Each structure stands twice: as C-alpha cells, then as structure tokens.
C-alpha cells in the first residue's frame, strides 16, 4: 500500500476508535527541544519524574531504530462537574484535578493506541511500532505539536483549537513512512493569563515551568511540602488546574463524550476526614482507577491534612491529634503538627504540647516547635496569657 493510503486508513480507524484527534509527523530528532531541556536542567526546573536521558526524550530512533514517523493522538476530557458536592462546616472536601477524573487515562490511551497499532500491522505486517503514553521517554506535547494536534501554550500545555488544553496525549513511533501533517501556527498571542494566575509563580516565563514550585508537582511528592507552598495548595488533593482554567482557549469548553473520563463527583471531590482513616486497601478500592492514585495514599492523605488546615476545621483536631500521636509516618505526623498550629484552639495546643514531650523524629519535632511558637504568638497578640 502507498503511504497516503495507509495514513487514510489509520485516520478512519481513529474515528472508529473514538479518537478525537490524530496527526502524523516525522521522527527526526527534536533538536530545539533538547536545547531547552538542557537549559531547564541547568536551572534546576525538572520535577524528577521525567526520563533522565535527554537523548531518549528527543531522539525517537533511540526508542525504535529506523524510526521514520510519529503518530500522535488526543482524547478530550471533561472540565466541569455536574452538581458538584459542596463543602460544609465539619464536612469539608478536597479536589482532584481534571486530568485525574474518571478512569486512568494511561490505560485508555494505551488501549486505543494498541488498536491503532494493530491496524497498522495488518496493513504492513513487517512494520515495527512502539506505543508511548505519558510515562514514555518522548515529550508527548512536542510530538503532538509537530503532528499538528495543537500548539504548546505559555502554560506549557498542549492547546487544541477544538478542545482547548483539556486533552490527553499519546503517540506511536513506527518505521513506516507516513506523510507528515503541518504544525499548527496559532499561538497564545499577547495573553499572559496563565502566567499571571499561577499561584506560586512556577511559570517563570512563557513556555517554561519550574516544576519544583508547581502545585501539580508538589501534590505528588512524598516528602513534607515546603512551608511556603502549603497554604497555596488549599484543598487540592492531586494536581492543579489554575493555569488551564484561566486560559481563554478553555472558556466554555467541556466535552463528556469519552465515557471513561466521566467523573464520579464523590470521588473527585471527596470528603477529607474519611481519607485520613483509609488503609492502603481501602484507598485502592476507592481511588485506584484514577490517575491521581499513582503515588499511593501517602501524598493524598498529607494533602488532605493541608486542606483541613486551609479550612481551619476545628472538628478535625481530634483526628489530627491522633495522627500526630500514633501515625508511623513522619510526614503525616509533621504535617498534622503544622495543621494543628494553623487551626489553633485549646485542644490543638494540648495535643502539640503532649507530642513535644514524646516525639523523637527531628523533623517532626521542628514542626511541632514551630506550630507551638505560632499559637503562643497568637495568644500574646490577642492579649490572652500563655496557657503553657
């Protein structure tokens, strides 16, 4: 078959598979991207979740020798909840970012790409092809941009004309030549809404993200969240959507036709306190199908504690006090100490004083000391005599 015929058949198969966008590009090295990544690394802006080998991130032939073409796909996901549950005093809720709504997109995209790969191999039995989704070495956004799916915006997200940036991306590398598509020339123009709205200033300049300061990254780490960022996390349990929500290209964009990504409101906006009592098994049963569960329950529980402090939820003090006293994980104890210091009150002060006498971990002791100092300063400033 001629390359044009193979491409046409793949486009038809993509429609049948309910793939929202498909594009084709050459498998040439991403030379400009490599220079940006070198600079990115030099400045310390990497998250640590990326493929460390820059050659693999920018050279498709390092993944598939004799690579000739890249096939990029995009699936749209919802951006709004219908009748979302509301937070109430004593029953406050957290939020998972939109990219974690519904079934884990890694599985969905891989299934679609594997079906597309089968179609290709049916036409060209001697072909080789490799499927990549998010965790693969290549930059999904760079591939999608070259393949004409959309353009990389100032917030570093891939923006499509039809679906805004509410899309998941995946790609296939093959040694079959396929006529490439034309990259999209549209861009963000003079708009700086995402840069202006970033809660931590992690978007240091158009198209450059300091992952170490990005809330989406910080919610996924397993260690203590650096104190300057804790209050900025708010009630985020996983990820951050701010730079996408404010994007004009995302205004009034909400697609729900991909059934797998339709959210369960109770799971994507769950009650906070029940999360803190979950075992690993309970957590997997409740959230295991979501992309936001990939780091396990620890980061989500830590973020739930931060969210309770954000809401100043006095009803959570007994639970936080128990975590501070009994939880075997220093990160949970330390975050609980910080939260008790933020929430305040006599019971929080009592719990912190008791923990100060018993705690042996140096980092947790530091959090306890800082929380106690904060509460005592507040007592003095309010005119109340220090109780302890």
Automatic annotation (TrEMBL):
[4Fe-4S] cluster 2 binds at residues 198, 214, 240, 243. Signal peptide: none annotated. Residues 179-208 form the 4Fe-4S ferredoxin-type domain. Keywords: 4Fe-4S, Cobalamin, Cobalt, Cytoplasm, Iron, Iron-sulfur, Metal-binding, Oxidoreductase, Queuosine biosynthesis, tRNA processing. PROSITE patterns: 4FE4S_FER_1, 4FE4S_FER_2. It holds the Pfam family QueG_DUF1730. One of its GO terms (cellular component) is cytoplasm. TRNA binds at residues 220, 222, 280-281, 295. Transmembrane segments: none annotated. Cob(II)alamin binds at residues 57, 97, 134, 139-141, 155, 158, 169, 240-241. One of its GO terms (molecular function) is metal ion binding. It catalyses: epoxyqueuosine(34) in tRNA + AH2 = queuosine(34) in tRNA + A + H2O. Its EC number is 1.17.99.6. PANTHER family: EPOXYQUEUOSINE REDUCTASE. Catalyzes the conversion of epoxyqueuosine (oQ) to queuosine (Q), which is a hypermodified base found in the wobble positions of tRNA(Asp), tRNA(Asn), tRNA(His) and tRNA(Tyr). Monomer. This is Epoxyqueuosine reductase. It comes from Planifilum fulgidum. The gene is queG.
